[in-house]
Specification:
single chain; 626 residues; alpha+beta; eight-stranded mixed beta sheet; six-stranded mixed beta sheet
């Protein structure tokens, strides 16, 4: 039995196949099981065309055997097998795919799914093996043939005794090293895990002897460990079943098992798409965000399958960031896989699927908002921040697409409302969507500016999430209505007479305000009277593009240069404190300085900001009490 050399150019090529193409060594089992499935499909296809005896559909199986002492894993199938010539052609030439030839030379059948196409998956076995043996026999042969190789040095082919049609592949597992723990592949639980992960939906039973604990016969308490055959794969993917035949409990069980969430999914999206690219999608919107969702460790993505074989556990390209909370999978036979069957060779199909998935998720959320408000509110409470981030990200590129999914707390409705609902209720003379920012709705509700607007019958949106105001700034307007921060923008609700009277009052008191501004050491851009505070004495109003709330958020970002909002100190012209200030300006400027500092600190507290010098404030208040 003479050793032959591989026909492909060399050891270098095989070394590349083994060491460079595949990211994870564990996929060797996926590749060999997929090859076994292809071999069974070929035999089954030929039986449909009366080209061979074939077997009953239920008789086709794939067996896995582990021998720890011999350090071997054996994969056995009763598929079509290979002749000596096919062994030479398919395994003697790297990157020669018998499965691809079969697909090319035969019409597609609805009940046959050939997976392989590159002819290199078999060689992934050498990532974990130092010797691979293939024993095989076809229906036409009276004797079997054996292929043996220890890697790039070559291979040998000889005759062997084999009673049944099919193929047996035996891997002699490498010895473990400090860097690589090959022994794990000799553990049945590890093999079972890999089959469940990658090959759960192979269309034929995958059988392996597994240890099982059970009650001893005749005993009610004593258990024994027995080894018995166990089918490891589900075979039929849930997503390929008619969704009208799937119960809510089945969806929940699948979701809990696949995505390790103890809660039931809040919403399930099960769809089948045919067209430029055909695929099945099974998507889940969780009820709650996972613990690491808003951390840098969270990895978005859907599971990606090709003909029921998992290609990627998390394909991030299938989901935009603002829908990263979605879990689920996509299965398509149309993907242009690369040679390692791990990523895509051409991404056109993937981009098309991702675009459709994005539209589907948005459509489902829009429908949920319209038809099941309670469920949508629960969703938004968990993942609303991500939608707002989507509005803000990429300079608002997706703002128009996402704006109708936004909800904010309403001062009049006392619940979350959409921008559309707010605009429908606006007063006829109102030109802006009014909002205010703060830590909680209760704190916002107590703001002097908000109290005054509510008193006049205006609805105000309460923004409590750090991203809220940034999202509205990026959105700019909704249905031609701009956004106005009641603590920053000039809300023009006064009559001409009221405006003129206030203007006169501020001009008369200009010297006093200049003195107070200087007393505050540049902490404010301006001091002035206002008539928008109802019964409240004072407030701070943002002057520039950066509001007080935006300052708070931006200054929490590590490593970023600190920013400071420009603010004006506004004093209620109708409050008794206004007359007190005027009197002090004429009689006691030192005390006016103290009053200015107290009013400024009070305004900061009302606005939810920290006091820069709490000790000074305490002393000033105590001095007034003496």
């Amino acid at each position: 039995m003479r050793k032959k050399q591989f026909k492909a150019e060399s050891k270098k090529l095989l070394d590349m196949m083994i060491n460079s193409i595949y990211t994870h060594k564990e996929i060797f089992l996926r590749e060999l099981i997929s090859n076994a499935s292809d071999a069974i499909d070929k035999r089954y296809y030929r039986s449909l065309n009366n080209a061979g005896e074939g077997l009953a559909r239920d008789d086709y199986k794939i067996f896995i055997d582990i021998d720890k002492d011999a350090r071997t894993i054996t994969i056995t199938d009763n598929g079509c097998g290979m002749t000596a010539e096919e062994l030479e052609t398919n395994l003697g030439t790297i990157a020669k795919s018998g499965s691809l030839d079969f697909k090319t030379n035969n019409d597609a059948k609805t009940d046959v799914e050939i997976i392989g196409q590159f002819g290199v998956g078999f060689y992934s076995a050498f990532m974990v093996s130092d010797e691979v043996t293939v024993e095989t026999k076809t229906e036409a042969d009276e004797i079997g043939h054996k292929w043996v190789s220890q890697g790039a040095d070559g291979y040998s082919i000889s005759e062997c005794e084999k009673d049944t049609v099919g193929t047996v592949i035996t891997l002699h597992i490498k010895e473990s090293t400090e860097e690589e723990k090959y022994d794990e592949y000799l553990q049945s639980y590890r093999i079972e895990t890999l089959i469940k992960k990658y090959s759960d939906y192979i269309r034929y039973p995958i059988i392996m002897d597994c240890e099982t604990r059970r009650l001893k016969e005749g005993s009610e308490e004593e258990y024994e460990t027995v080894v018995e055959p166990k089918q490891l794969n589900s075979m039929v993917p849930l997503w390929r079943k008619n969704k009208n035949e799937i119960t809510e409990d089945e969806y929940k069980e699948f979701y809990n098992d696949k995505f390790h969430d103890y809660n039931a999914p809040l919403h399930v999206v099960h769809s089948k798409t045919e067209g430029q690219v055909s695929y099945d999608a099974l998507l889940f919107i969780p009820e709650k965000a996972p613990w690491d969702y808003y951390t840098k460790d969270f990895e978005k993505g859907l599971q990606l399958y090709s003909n029921g074989v998992m290609i990627m556990e998390k394909c991030g390209d299938l989901l935009p960031d603002y829908f990263s909370f979605v879990r689920g999978l996509v299965d398509s036979a149309d993907l242009s896989l690369n040679i390692s069957r791990e990523v895509l060779q051409h991404d056109y199909q993937l981009k098309l699927i991702a675009k459709n998935i994005e539209k589907k998720i948005k459509s489902e959320l829009t429908k949920m908002l319209r038809t099941d408000r309670e469920k949508y509110v629960k969703f938004f409470e968990s993942f609303g921040s991500q939608i707002k981030l989507g509005v803000y990200a990429d300079f608002g590129r997706k703002a128009d697409d996402l704006k109708d999914l936004l909800l904010f707390w309403s001062s009049s409705e006392k619940k979350l409302v959409s921008l559309s609902e707010y605009v429908e209720r606006m007063k006829s003379e109102q030109t802006s969507i009014l909002y205010a920012c703060g830590e909680t709705t209760d704190k916002i509700d107590m703001l002097p500016q908000v109290d005054s607007l509510k008193d006049k019958g205006y609805e105000v949106l309460y923004l409590t999430d750090g991203i809220d105001e940034f999202a509205l700034k990026m959105l700019r307007a909704y249905n031609e209505k701009d956004f106005a921060n009641v603590c920053a923008d000039d809300i023009d609700l006064d009559t001409d007479e009221e405006k003129e009277a206030l203007k006169q009052e501020n001009e008369t008191s200009k010297e006093m305000f200049d003195f107070m501004k200087e007393a505050l050491g540049g902490a404010v851009e301006e001091v002035r009277f206002t008539n928008k505070l109802k019964n409240h004495p004072v407030c701070l109003t943002s002057e520039g593009d950066v509001s007080v709330e935006m300052e708070k958020v931006l200054n929490t970002i590590p490593g970023e240069e600190k920013v400071k909002a420009q603010v004006a100190l506004e004093i209620n012209a109708e409050h008794p404190v206004a007359e007190k200030l005027k009197a002090l300006y004429e009689s006691d400027k030192d005390k006016l300085t103290d009053y200015a500092k107290i009013l400024y600190s009070s305004a900061r507290l009302i606005g939810g900001m920290q006091i820069e010098n709490p000790t000074e404030l305490s002393n000033l208040i105590c001095n007034l009490m003496i």
